[in-house]
Amino acid sequence: MLIFSRAPLFLWAEAIATTCFTQNCSIIHRRFNKTPYELINGRKPDISFLHVFGALCYPKNNCEDIVKLGAKGDIGFFIGYFADSCAYRVFNQRTKKIMETMNVSFDELSAMAFEQRRLPSRTSDRRTLTVLTRNQLPSDGDMCMYALTVSTMEPKNIKEAMTDPTWIESMQEELLQFKRLDVWVLVPVPDNITPLTLKWLFKNKHDEEHMEIRNKSRLVVRGYRQEEGIDFKESFAPVARMEAIKIFLTYAAHKAFTVFQMDVKFEFLHGTLKEDMYVCQPEGFIDVDHPSHVFKLTKALYGLKQVHRAWYDELSTFLFQNHFFKGTTDPTVFIRRFVDDILVVQVYVDDIIFGSAHPRPDIIHATCLCARYLAKPTDKHLKEVKRIFCYLRGTVNIGLWYTKDSGFELTEFSDADYAGCKDTFKSTFGGAQFLKEKLVSWSSKKQDCMVLSIAKAEYVSLSACCAQVLWMRTQLTDYGFHFNKIPICCDSKSAIAISCNLVQHSRTKHIAVRYHFIKEHVEKGTIELYFVKTDYQLADILTRALPVDRFNYLVRRLGMRSLSPQELDYLSKSQ
């Protein structure tokens, strides 16, 4: 640190103290997966006040009488932290003394302060100041010391990564996993084969406090060069719907099950390929004895089109061998029964599911309304989006609370806002599906057809919600539930009368035929329609803007609670 900052040697004690403090706040203990600071104090350190040793700073001059045009601050060099408070230790260039102060401004974008001090006041040419970069550090020791005080930058390419020992070790760890899992075999280049090229990706992994945990290197294939029918046959892999995951969690809460969540490391490397695939040797790790050879893949590799399908097939085969059976309608659910007991496995690929958008039920109407103007937004729309973000910032801890022992009956609320769209005058429908008091699925969408009355808008909404209920009904058969006469609550008696009347009335014949299937399920007894007053219509929040009191009431009725640690403790004790 002294060498990098060009600080005088008499500050070596300050450098050691600063290094120890920084290490205690930043280095993760592998055994406990915590920093020494967190082990001692029981809380994670606040690293927002850390600064580079030797950085240029300007402490305020509050100790002397300052004339009107006098300097309000001095030039100083940051040399450490005060142990008993949040003050900084600064070497004052004017007084040549070490001072402790909280009133200081930092300028870390400039070169080191000690280096600037040694520059002559005037120069004969206009050459710019040379700033040491990470690749220009004199030794590995200085590089490690620099990494303790400055955030590690992610390499943009393999050339930058090869200059950093930590990234070299990360790449070697990735290749070691390939060898352990027998991902590939080095072979001569086959005739009439053009191997795919590889690419290194680099990413710093952080925890929830944005503290860097480790450096992650990943070797991927440039799969965009693959051709369907030649390089692969099937690339589709089932993905769990958000409603299916909520049903799984609701069932676990109802049965008071223990839920285990696990992430398979290098999951795609376990999938077996059905096609012959060849890739070039990774850049920076060419075999010196066989530089012209290529790797023949025996397992799937990141970037291939068929990688998700290969992993799903491998996992399915393993579960089938262990006496699991696949869900009736959801291929991502695997179930194994033990007499009166049941083991349910919900499979999802984390690399796919993160891209799905499923807004919270309290903002889904607002987000869907703003999404209609994505093609040509204006300042007015941007203002409304900012209001949504302001609301989210104030309710960041709000989430769904699934209580146990509250029943498991399937119920739905359906509502519509007639001619709610001011541009097309189409109606907006909303639906909320509950398992007793637990909200599982919700939707808010503009109807794709034009209707002539409120009753017909409610009728179309009932048909759309009926389709969702039928899917959930089939999904729940895998859990051992067989629902009939499922109640659907609507606040329109006219829409209920139309649904229960099998006669095609002249005033409803213009409605698309696909919306009339609800009449068949009412006749079969699959569903039952009930009238509720608007005051008790829980889907009202999904179709229109509401006053504050009404909005807060419905948010509470939907089962949304503040999930802060204090509230969670209170809710768990109240059950």
From TrEMBL:
It comes from the Eukaryota. Keywords: Signal. Residues 56-110 form the Retroviral polymerase SH3-like domain. It holds the Pfam family SH3_retrovirus. Residues 1-17 form the signal peptide. The keyword Mitochondrion does not apply. Residues 182-356 form the Reverse transcriptase Ty1/copia-type domain. Coiled coil: none annotated. This is Retrovirus-related Pol polyprotein from transposon TNT 1-94.
